[in-house]
Amino acid sequence: MFFNVSRASRLSGANWESLVLPVIEFSSVFHPGIFKTMREIKVKVKGSSGLCTLASDGDSVSVDEQKTCSSSSSVQSTPEIEKKYVHRVYDAIAPHFSSTRYAKWPKVATFLNSLPAGSVILDAGCGNGKYLGLNPECFYMGCDISAPLIKICADRGHEVLVGDAVNLPYRTGFGDAAISIAVLHHLSTENRRKKAIEELVRVVKKGGLVLITVWAVEQEDGSLVAKWTPLTQKYVEEWIGPGSPRVRSPSCITLESIPENEENNNSKEHVKDTKGNGDGELSNAMDLASRTENDFIVSEDERTAKNQQEYFVPWHLPYHRAEVSGASACALANGLAKKDDKKGAVVYNRYYHVFSEGELERLATGMKNAVVVDRFFDKSNWCIILEKTS
């Protein structure tokens, strides 16, 4: 899939030229670069194979900068919990998930419609692209870690590419605004959630606004929470295994589902999401990769803990929408999915870290170049708006 430049003529020549760079490869797919002005230098980091931006072309790189890069690469390396229970799941359920994602949240629509005509809006974690183009007077670019979801967006004519929330593929200070809708709660460590916020601020101009929404602990419908599976503990840096956020290794767990055009022929069958709205390190990583979801489930006593924030949230993919005898069988065999014959569905669990009151603001507190200008609770989500100050 390629970045769609059919609307390029609507941008000024200067702005568009500042955006486009040479072609860069993501997930074995080539996308024209709209990426960072900084050169990327390969740095060997224990337990990581990522790239790290260090300095402008021609600049020297200090030891301190290399240490900073090492830390950044660690944060940008995708934990196994996210690979197995976020990335691969959304790849599998993409058409069905997309068919349930059509209603726009009023608060998000109000934010987008309040932006000046001609604004460039970056949607990080755009999903099926339901917010791309909402305000026809603005220009939109979206990215998402799920290639199948990005294909759905591209087929609809949107300007999109595969990209990671903690390493956004955009130049610093390019956008007038950015949004991250229901994305950060899929990141399994506090450092990664904080990094994602820093990236959203980085890619907008001074004075630019960033809207972030996340699922809340304080769910308005308590019956939904009862259907979630609490996990044993919060995930910390030790859970991170080898890997790059830009290139995901091939796996037998390449899940497939029915094309979206077949979803549209069965619109009455929409299924709602449960949310209305060293060597030692390598050994640990391999141990985590071999685990199934049962290894993460807590006891009944722990289930009632008031501070529980880590969950598996189920997604029911009807049998007729999944190739149960094909690739999905691999997911079932590897513990990434279960069969529910009573409901006639393959059940996939998605990892969530639900946010407590004030947690999202605390992650943004201390940023030298942004301030929180608004916060609100909407449809069981905590939301903030940041403004970039420098």
TrEMBL record:
It comes from Manihot esculenta (Cassava). Residues 122-212 form the Methyltransferase type domain. GO terms for molecular function: S-adenosylmethionine-dependent methyltransferase activity; tRNA (5-carboxymethyluridine(34)-5-O)-methyltransferase activity; tRNA binding. This is Methyltransferase type 11 domain-containing protein. The lineage of its organism: Eukaryota, Viridiplantae, Streptophyta, Embryophyta, Tracheophyta. Residues 257-280 are annotated as: Disordered. It holds the Pfam family Methyltransf_11. Residues 265-278 have a biased composition (Basic and acidic residues). GO terms for cellular component: cytoplasm; nucleus. Keywords: Methyltransferase, Transferase. It comes from the Eukaryota. GO terms for biological process: tRNA methylation; tRNA wobble uridine modification.
